[in-house]
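Form 7-S
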Amino acid sequence: MPKFNEPLTLKSGVTINNRLFMSPMTTQQSFYNGTVTRDEIEYYSARAGGVGAVITGAANVQDGGKGWPGELSIASDLYLPELQALAKGIQAKGAKAIIQIFHGGRMTSSATLSGKQPVSASAVAAERPGAETPRAMTTDEIHATIAAFGEATRRAIQAGFDGVELHGANTYLIQQFFSPHSNRRTDEYGGSLTNRYHFIKELLASVFAAVDKYADRPFIVGYRVSPEEFEKPGISFADTLWLVDQLRETKLDYLHLSLNNYTRKSQDPAYQEQSMLGYVQAELAGSMPLIGVGGVRNRTDVARVLASADAVAIGQQLIFDPTWAEKLLSDKDDTFVTAPFADLIDTSALNTPLREFVRAMITSRAARIAAYRAKSK
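Output:
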């Protein structure tokens, strides 16, 4: 089992100082057009101390991929100066700066897109209140989106970031192409597992082509994945293990498993002997590092994650306890913030956009957990 203070060297040649990552989290602190704000730079810089790498919240690669107001954008060269300042703000604390890139797909709204209809693999609405039915993307639009991920990678390189993370999780567009719920296509991008992986395969080719062409230094490419869906039909855990088999043959530097709790088990009765994190680690068989995440608040949590992963990502704890990683590294565990997150919203030094988003996130998460427990009975 690795220790959290040990360095981690990736396939690309990048060495990260330790096994602690700041998890990508939405903050809604960008300007309305996606430009990075001074508040955003200060937010990430304040939390970069002690962690080996910071993964930013999602940045859209196309205007039509914007998921929510206040979201980062990497869809144009116009954003490069502020993105460069963000990368430098993170790196000044000794952490690697990784920007997460994504497209919201059907998980947005026409209001967010200034009246335009959201797009996805197919014209199937998400199973959530108020979800709009998206328009199925044309083949040309798919190719343009794949190219946009490559262009976003170029911008990340030119802005000085150390890497990108492809957001293939949390029901956004990359996951939508792999999911049998959101992807009902009958062309080469839909149907079988192999066909539904086609979008991901071409996306990876576009991103690595940009790295090969533009990177003048070792550059990280990671991938985040959600292990299963509750929709029927949806991504099963067996589907995800198949996806892991494909991804481990690529040049990816790491796989990041998106979980709300690192101990979570699959809903599939066939996978109950260990956590999903443990199963994915076994499937990877050492082919690339695995990052575990979900409810990490203290030293014990870190050790438990690293029993089934190579690195650990810390999310909400860092929102409310910005110097948590530095405290961990210097054995100041008695100074960790330990109160329930819901009790900290109005007492923490969070600006208004971030405070209101965190409040909505925690309320929404509590509602989802209650609904899931009720459904499981």
